[in-house]
UniProtKB/TrEMBL annotation, chain A:
SMART domains: AAA. GO terms for cellular component: plasma membrane. GO terms for molecular function: ATP binding; ATP hydrolysis activity. GO terms for biological process: peptide transport; transmembrane transport. This is ABC transporter ATP-binding protein. It comes from the Bacteria.
UniProtKB/TrEMBL annotation, chain B:
Residues 94-295 form the ABC transmembrane type-1 domain. This is ABC transporter permease. Belongs to the binding-protein-dependent transport system permease family. The keyword Membrane applies. It comes from Plastoroseomonas arctica. Gene3D superfamilies: MetI-like. SUPFAM superfamilies: MetI-like. One of its GO terms (biological process) is transmembrane transport. It is found in: Cell membrane. Its main location: membrane.
UniProtKB/TrEMBL annotation, chain C:
It holds the Pfam family BPD_transp_1. Belongs to the binding-protein-dependent transport system permease family. Keywords: Cell membrane, Membrane, Peptide transport, Protein transport, Transmembrane, Transmembrane helix, Transport. InterPro entries: BP-dependent_transpt_permease, MetI-like, MetI-like_sf, OppC_N. It comes from Plastoroseomonas arctica. Its main location: membrane. This is ABC transporter permease.
Amino acid sequence: MSEIALELRRLTVDIPTDAGMLHAVRGVSLTARRGETLCVVGESGCGKSLTTLAVMGLLPEGAKRGAERMELAGENLLKASPSRLRALRGDRMAMIFQDPMTCLNPSLTIGDQMTETFLHHGKGRRRAALDRAVALLERVGIAGAAGRIGQYPHQLSGGLRQRVVIAMALMCEPDVLLADEPTTALDATVQLGILQLLAALQREMHMALVLVTHDLGIVARIADRVAVMYAGEVVEEGAVRAVFDTPRHPYTRGLMQCIPQPGITAPGTRLGTIPGLVPYLVGEVAGCAFRGRCPHAMPACALPVPVREDAAHAWRCLL
Amino acid sequence: MLGFALRRAALAVAVGLAVSAIAFLLLRVSGDLAATLAGEEASAAEIERIRGLYGLDRPVIVQYGEWLLRSLRGDLGRSLFYPESVAKLILDRLPNTATLATLGLAVALLLSIPLGVVAALFRNTWIDRLALALAVLGQAMPSFWFALLLIFFFGITLGWLPVSGTEGLANFVLPALALGWFSTPVLMRLTRAGMVEVLAADYIRTAHAKGLPVRTVLVKHALRNAVAPVVALASVQFGNMLSGSVVIETVFALQGIGYLAWESISRRDFPVVQGILLVVALFYVVLTLVADLLNAWLDPRIRSG
Amino acid sequence: MSGAQVTRRARWRGNWGLIIAAVVLGAIALMAVAAPLLAPFDPYEQILDDRMLPPAFVDAERASPDHLLGTDNLGRDYLSRLIYGARISLLIGFFTMVVSGVIGTVLGVAAGFFGGRTDMVVSFLVTTRLSLPVVMVALAVVAVLGGSLQVVVLVLGLLLWDRFAVVMRSATMQVRSRDYVTAARAIGCSVPRILWGEVLPNVVSGLVVIASYEMAQAILLEAALSFLGLGVQPPLPSWGLMVSEAKEFMLFEPWMIMLPGAAICVLVLAINLLGDGIRDLTAPEGRR
């Protein structure tokens, strides 16, 4: 078992709205180890992005965070001062956002944006920063990296920009790299290359990669472990093979039926769908949040649901 | 960039021609120039003689062409009141107006950018509302009235500053405040709006995710993008200040071209009015051209596109 | 109750500015209409024995109980002149707004709808207009044509249409590309009919906001022209003219410039707040 890079215990994020308190993340526990890729999957609005933002300390204004434990490579983030948190951000933990078209500052050069992280965290002088930036741009597969340094974001295509964003996040060799749907905004043809790059970099730099996605195809390809989120909770978590081969939570099973499987799904057959809508998370939510859509729901589902485990994974269901 | 610059320059030339035609026509419709030149007691024959002498009997378009050529060489005609050429009158007064407008713009920027940034940072708090209330109030005050209030409080009641004349820099303080005050609301709102938009941008979140200090995020990443439109508008405001100076210079009896314009209009000294109109309008045309090009240059998307 | 109703109510509730502005503006308009009934004196009647009497709140000893807001340097009742002055400001503001609104809207809609060469011509006209210094041109034209209400309205109307044109142009361009306009064209509706029936109703809320802004601008400019002696002519009680007449007595009777100036300020403030309020009410997100 390798070293734990990021550990979350019972993380909550509450967002005040006009209608009342929205419990967007409700007691999420996750563990990410060095040299491992953890995928967090779920529909939009299930709280997966907020979870990563909470780790970075970048929650939207007004959102309240609570947790039993939140540690980055053994350091307690809950006790970290804002300035300590700023020192960790970009250095020990880095984040890649969804849309590379808007994540880069349009009026600063690529080189300027890449080196500022390195320089600010005191990793070296300007010369060293530029060398590292060029080396990383080359590593992420950008041809003519030295020439790109002086260019502005608008001069690059979407796929190239996302590679720049990835290289930028790696400037200080973080322990944890959080990636929030890094390929959703890109063309399908570019997506695979970016994902393979992320997986390779994770192995090379021996860091923990936390990849947020709604795409199970991605998960199957690159995850070591997977956490399935539904309505602000982790409903099932474990080694990727265990979760895919023997899904235990009805929601996970529903998700699995939504993916077409080569050789099994014939053309023209209907894929599975999960009937119903995601529950409304304003106000207190008791019991299993999925019971309104669950084919196996029973009266006991309205009570607090225990977490059950086997050797390879854990799930939150009575079944 | 070159194509953009050429298109903008062509428009500027066309507008310059139109503006000059308007200035030319203003003098024509202001009365019979030949009769004015001949003097009040001149006979009809004398007026006709002068008309012929000055070429005022030829087609208007020919006269316009000649006038335009003369104007471009710097000959704007003679004042009916002062024993001097219009060009000399304007050149004598222009430095005062330029000083006033520059100081006014400085006042406006020094007030509006910090206020706009602070309002954006504390948006929807009392600080934001206070800044907005100031802007709304500022837009509602008549400029001459605000100038009189400044004179009353700082000049008369407190006796700190001179209230009229052009002797020294102290004479420019109150006029510059009055002039700058009126560009402040619009520049402040623009700074605030730009800042609010930029602060919500993804690249600001990226900058925070890099662990940069708040100051670096605000100045290097946010302000730079937020003030680009402010810079463009500020140069247009500079042009507005040149024309707004009519009111302010008159109130403070500051010897600039605005005051000269008001005096000349009151005395029906239309050759001077015409000259000032032409100079101010052309200045504005050049200024907007420069602003457009500057703005394009500040925005790398246009610069290299 | 639907979500839309909730937000609409919330907007109204949070919009005290709009309510106050509407009340103030209504009161001023009422004052202007009912001026002969409300004004205690004839605004032109000079009582030379009662010159420059201050209002009671400035100097209770010298004040006269007859003249609530004092009298001017010719012994005319200040309150009556202020009440009649509202007529001038509102008349000029309103009609200037109408003239400039018609010019600007026609040009802007034409540019936005037809595009191409029409658009180029209109943008050339707008740029030319913006290059002309408003105050200077207005002063010069009034000097040539004389300072009647009609001339001031005409001059300002011809100078203040640019914003209407710019906003109407972009609004029309947005509307033009929508499906329902394409559909109307496809079924063979005539151009005027499309403009009147499809385009205009969709840009009208933006129009109201600019109209309020331009009306405020026109009132401020009229005051400035009159203050400089080349707007409305004496003895008409224009507020700007009143400030001008009072300024030589500013040292001893500062209230004489304060009152008409404050009147302009309140009127313009009310109109601007009304415009802002309407914009917040009609904007899709309700943001400013």
